[in-house]
Sequence to fold (194 residues):
Amino acid sequence: MKKNFLFGGITAILIIAVIWLYLPKTNKALGNVQIWGPTDIVGTKIGTTTTGVNFAVNAGVEGYSATSTYVATTTALTDVLIFTVKALAASSTAGVHFSILGSNDYKCDTATTTTIYDVITMKQINWFDIGSHVAGLAGSQTISTGTSTIVWENPAVAQGKDIVLTNVNYNCVALQVSGSSTVLWIQRHSKSSY
Fold:
């Protein structure tokens, strides 16, 4: 009887070990750090196909295209936000301007229509210039009258850059982009250390 009990116990342990090995594993936070994977915000990447957005000057107009705003959802716990920017096509006179805004308004990432249940529109969201959160950029200690702008002149095709924001702590962040003769693909990545 003892042999049967011992054999049954060993069999049960082996079955549990095999099941544990084949269960899907989840990403655990290391040292209370949570990392969220990349999300397309300008253009798309599906499999091996990457499709960018063309920032071109309208016919007969000099300078940069009209500014487009792309909202990246964060959480109140997000402290690092990274925009990875890749030029998929660019002319010899290409250039891109980026401005970064943050908001703590409720549903600032989704309130785009006016209905009986959702009366906030994008124009009513309180956005703030958060260019001072960009890591590695020297900046003035005075508050300017406009929004701070990051300039990328003459981007090379297939060249990638990143814009790293630290100490973010906003409900959502908006990336404003205007460009000339450039096709861009941009993703956002975020991290929380809380």
User: Anything to note?
Assistant: The longest helix spans residues 2-22.
